[in-house]
Amino acid sequence: xxxxxxxxxxxxxxxxxxxxxxxxxxxxxxxxxxxxxxxxxxxxxxxxxxxxxxxxxxxxxxxxxxxxxxxxxxxxxxxxxxxxxxxxxxxxxxxxxxxxxxxxxxxxxxxxxxxxxxxxxxxxxxxxxxxxxxxxxxxxxxxxxxxxxxxxxxxxxxxxxxxxxxxxxxxxxxxxxxxxxxxxxxxxxxxxxxxxxxxxxxxxxxxxxxxxxxxxxxxxxxxxxxxxxxxxxxxxxxxxxxxxxxxxxxxxxxxxxxxxxxxxxxxxxxxxxxxxxxxxxxxxxxxxxxxxxxxxxxxxxxxxxxxxxxxxxxxxxxxxxxxxxxxxxxxxxxxxxxxxxxxxxxxxxxxxxxxxxxxxxxxxxxxxxxxxxxxxxxxxxxxxxxxxxxxxxxxxxxxxxxxxxxxxxxxxxxxxxxxxxxxxxxxxxxxxxxxxxxxxxxxxxxxxxxxxxxxxxxxxxxxxxxxxxxxxxxxx
Length: 476
Hints:
The protein has 476 residues and is an alpha/beta fold. It has one domain: TIM Barrel. The chain contains 15 helices and 17 strands. The protein has helices at residues 40-43, 128-137, 150-162, 197-207, 220-232, 246-251, 261-264, 282-293, 302-310, 315-318, 328-341, 350-369, 389-400, 405-419, 466-471, and strands at residues 49-58, 63-73, 76-82, 97-100, 105-108, 110-115, 140-145, 169-171, 173-178, 188-190, 211-214, 236-239, 256-258, 297-299, 437-440, 454-459, 462-464. Strands 1, 2, 3, 4, 5, 15, 16 and 17 form an eight-stranded mixed beta sheet that branches. Helix 6 links the parallel strand 12 (236-239) and strand 13 (256-258). Helix 4 (197-207) packs across helix 5 (220-232) and helix 9 runs antiparallel to helix 12 (350-369). The longest helix has 20 residues, at 350-369.
């Protein structure tokens, strides 16, 4: 294989887009989530709701609780109890709308831990609000941005808060903290020295971001300071890294490694060949052990490797049924992007790419076996990574990598909530938490693909028809 520059190594995975720069006034600079504005229905409390006698997934035990009822009031879960104690005849449920839970399986609302809400969409001539129904209609009640234009994210969050009947909760991220020049000028931010870090992080905290994102060109000197100052502000620090070695970043306190190849890139026999991953080396064992020992999370985002990078030119990938409902503008961009990437990652024989895919799956399993906590994220709306539906596909890949369905479901809910520091608000079906739920028609513990069989989505205590949510999404 021809030699490639170290930065070209990640070119195929780098997120594309010229960007969207939108300004907000000083009123936008606070750390709390933006209040809903302009939609009185969004601010009105949801009526009480009783899900009567369902099977409810216990994220901590990794098991279904049989014949269990969930009472929701004012947008939060008020009680979870055996149906013999909590049912339509109970005084506590007086006046509540009732959903017959017989044959239904209740999950916490799913969370996608790696999306972009303005970046990438620019190339499709779309804005982030347009794709929000795809998430909620597929049971994804919260999304975690991992790098977007900061003021623009605020506007998308406001839209979501104003339209909870078609939108997930939106949690924001900083600009990508990068080298000079930033890999993505539209969403990148160059910090030259550690002295530049504190005012930048304070600014991001004032904007209300949940996550600081280190990117491929950041140096260790700057990255370490971002981690220190970010933690002082109570922020989570994630990294999609190349110049800053993942082992060093984890030792320095990095909270989350984004993308499986942010691990595998440092395990190459040939630094000029992205496919020469050696998982049997001493270095592989040392790196995995470092990640496990320091308690960092890993968000593999297998979907972006399957859909965008490795197999973008295969009909079964670009023609996958999950893409049928995507807007024509988004698919047109995906088509353009596929032609470009076919000359890069797609230039290798399919058999070589298949071998790399198997290594990604194996490495994901090795991380899990070592005790590393995995997250569930997708990198939507990257090409062939459909917003909403791709989270179900990601869960299927994690099962293929050796992760039991019960762990996948807990990761896609509670662990994803923890990386947002939102586990006191969401991520489990427990009293006191926000009433974001997914009601399924089949047991996902028996077959993870059953997460796609959604009967009802509950967002903020409101029971919603997924078909009606998806009908609000654009087709053009």
